[in-house]
Design brief:
Elements lengths: L2 E7 L22 H12 L8 E7 L2 H8 L4 E4 L6 H10 L6 E7 L6 H18 L3 E6 L27 H11 L3 H16 L2 E6 L2 E3 L12 H12 L3 E2 L6 E6 H17 L12 E3 L3 E4 H15 L8 E2 L2 H8 L4 H8 L3
Parallel strand pairs: 1-2, 1-4, 2-3, 4-5, 5-6, 6-10, 7-9, 8-12
Antiparallel strand pairs: 9-11
C-alpha cells in the first residue's frame, strides 16, 4: 500500500480526541460535512490510515492552536480567495517522491477559483516529482435539479452516476443558466484534465444529521426552515407536496469519502473512474417536501416551539427572502425542486 499524503480542505470546525495517524491530510475551511469527514477519518479502523499523515489547513492562529493542542499538524492560510497561496501550498505539500498526494476539498462547492488552484498546485507537484496526485471535490445534486416553481426547466430524467453524459449535461445546463456550484464542477474536471490530476466529484443530495465537530454541526435545509418557522410561528413550504428528493446522513457521506481515499491508498482504482466519468452520487433515502415540512412541524410543535402543525405554502419570492437572502435560483434548486 502506498504512503498517502492527503490535503483535506473544509474540516477545521470539528474536534476529536485521537492521536495523530501517519496520514497527511490538509484541511482548510469550516464546513458541516468536512468536519465529520475528518472526525470519521480519525476514528476509522481502516488499515490504510497506518500509511497516512494528517495536516489541517487552517485560517487563523486560534483554530491552529486548538488543533495543535490535540496533536494535529496545521498549515495556516489566508483565505479561499487567495488562490496564489492555495496553489503554492498544494504545489509544495510534502515533496517526498514516494508518497501519493490526495486533496479532499469540502469547502463551499461554488468556490471555482480555489478549487482550480488546488488542482493546479497538485499538477505542479506532479510535474516536479512524477508522483500520483488525486483531488476529491464536494459538490451537490442541485446542479441537476429542475425548476418546477418558475417552470423554466423541466427534467424528466432520473440520473445515475454511471451515465457517460453527466459532464456534457452539466455544461449544457450551465450554458442555459450559470450556477456557481455547477461552474465549479465543470472547472474541476477541465482543470484536472489539463493538469493531469485525477479528479473525483462527490455529489450528495440534501445532507441531514448532526455533525461530529466542535463548531459547525448543522446542515442547511432543515435548520433554515426550523429557524424560519420559529420566526413565523409555523413551518413554511415552497416545493410541491409530491416533490420527491434524495437525502444522505452526514455520517454515511463521510464514510464514502473514506472509502474513496482508502481505495486510492490501495491503488484499487478499477471501476472508480476519474475526470469526465468521475462524478459520484451519495443519496441513500428519499422524501417529499410535504414529508419534510410535516416532520419539522411535528418536532417543533412537540417541543413547544410553534403552536400549530399546519403548513403554510409560500411563493418563491417569499421563500428566497426567508431562506436564501433573496437568491431565487438558489432557493428553487435547493428548497423546491423535484
Amino acid at each position: 500500500m502506498a504512503k498517502l499524503e492527503v490535503l483535506l480542505a473544509g474540516a477545521t470546525g470539528y474536534m476529536y480526541r485521537l492521536p495523530l495517524p501517519s496520514f497527511s491530510v490538509l484541511v482548510s475551511k469550516l464546513r458541516y460535512s468536512g468536519g465529520t469527514i475528518l472526525s470519521t477519518l480519525l476514528n476509522s479502523k481502516n488499515d490504510f490510515l497506518e500509511h497516512c499523515n494528517l495536516s489541517l489547513l487552517v485560517r487563523g492562529n486560534d483554530k491552529a492552536r486548538l488543533f495543535e493542542a490535540e496533536g494535529l499538524k496545521t498549515v495556516l492560510f489566508n483565505d479561499l480567495d487567495d488562490t496564489q497561496e492555495i496553489e503554492r501550498i498544494a504545489s509544495n505539500y510534502d515533496h517526498d517522491f514516494d508518497h501519493t498526494i490526495v486533496i479532499i476539498n469540502t469547502t463551499p462547492g461554488g468556490s471555482v477559483n480555489s478549487a482550480t488552484a488546488f488542482i493546479k498546485g497538485l499538477g505542479n507537484g506532479k510535474a516536479l516529482t512524477g508522483r500520483d496526485v488525486f483531488y476529491i471535490h464536494t459538490s451537490g445534486t442541485s446542479n441537476l435539479a429542475d425548476r418546477p416553481i418558475t417552470g423554466t426547466y423541466h427534467e424528466p430524467r432520473t440520473f445515475i452516476d454511471t451515465s457517460p453524459d453527466l459532464y456534457p449535461y452539466l455544461q449544457h445546463r450551465n450554458e442555459l443558466t450559470p450556477y456557481a456550484q455547477r461552474t465549479a464542477d465543470i472547472a474541476v474536471i477541465s482543470t484536472g484534465l489539463a493538469s493531469k490530476v485525477n479528479t473525483y466529484i462527490i455529489m450528495p443530495p440534501t445532507i441531514y444529521g448532526t455533525g461530529t465537530g466542535l463548531f459547525n454541526r448543522l446542515t442547511i435545509q432543515a435548520p433554515t426552515i426550523m429557524r424560519s418557522a420559529l420566526r413565523n410561528g409555523q413551518v413554511l413550504q415552497l416545493g410541491a407536496d409530491d416533490g420527491d428528493v434524495e437525502s444522505v446522513h452526514v455520517q454515511d457521506l463521510a464514510d464514502l469519502y473514506i472509502l474513496v481515499a482508502s481505495r486510492i491508498a490501495k491503488g484499487d482504482l478499477e471501476g472508480m473512474p476519474s475526470g469526465i466519468r468521475g462524478i459520484y452520487f451519495a443519496g441513500t433515502s428519499r422524501y417529499t417536501w410535504k414529508e419534510f415540512a410535516d416532520g419539522i412541524a411535528g418536532a417543533l410543535f412537540e417541543a413547544g416551539g410553534i403552536k400549530t402543525k399546519q403548513i403554510k405554502k409560500i411563493g418563491l419570492e417569499e421563500a428566497a427572502a426567508e431562506w436564501t437572502g433573496g437568491h431565487q435560483l438558489l432557493c428553487e434548486l435547493n428548497f423546491g425542486s423535484k
